[in-house]
Amino acid sequence: MKFQDLLAYKKSVDAAMNIFEISKAFPKEEIYSLTDQIRRSSRSVSANIAESYRKRIYPKLYTSKLTDSDAENSETQVWLEYAWRCKYLSDELYNKLIQDSEEIGKLINYMVLHPEKFGVKKE
């Protein structure tokens, strides 16, 4: 299996691309703050999932990278809340993006709790 086949990876890439497209409409004065931050954190979720999968022969590194991914996912939720509070996102869109992020978090948590299903050897 390749890391690109992981459901958490696929969903996190889709979420980051949705955020990228949505953030194109943010005001220009947000380009070096909110827009940049939300794009970076959302992209880091999938990057850390990929890194964790490649480090699965080292159980502690595998878990560490997945917790980094989960942290980036939480950071993305913070930036989404700011975008919503600034009225850059509708209630409906904000709720959908948060729901997607929560689903990604559950998938990451599953990977942490069941490492053997992802080729991680017991220590």
Question: What can you tell me about this protein's structure?
Answer:
By secondary structure, this protein is an all-alpha fold. It has a single domain, classed as 23S rRNA-intervening sequence (de novo design (two linked rop proteins), Up-down Bundle), CATH 1.20.1440. 72% of the residues lie in helices and 0% in strands.
Please summarize what this structure is.
This protein is mostly helical and 123 residues long.
Notable characteristics:
single chain, 123 residues, mainly alpha, de novo design (two linked rop proteins), 72% helix, 0% strand
Q: How are the elements arranged and paired?
A:
Elements: H1 7-23, H2 34-54, H3 59-85, H4 91-113
CATH class: Mainly Alpha
The CATH level-2 architecture is identified as: Up-down Bundle
- Taken together, the total number of domains comes to 1
User: In whole angstroms, how far apart are the ends?
Assistant: 22 Å
Low-confidence stretches: none
SS content category:
mainly alpha
Q: What pattern of helices and strands is seen along the backbone?
A: HHHH
Percent of residues in β-strands: under 5%
The CATH superfamily is known as 23S rRNA-intervening sequence
Largest sheet composition: none
The CATH topology annotation reads as: de novo design (two linked rop proteins)
How many helices? 4
CA-based shape = elongated
Report the helical percentage: over 70%
Q: How much is the radius of gyration in Å?
A: 15 Å
β-strand number: 0
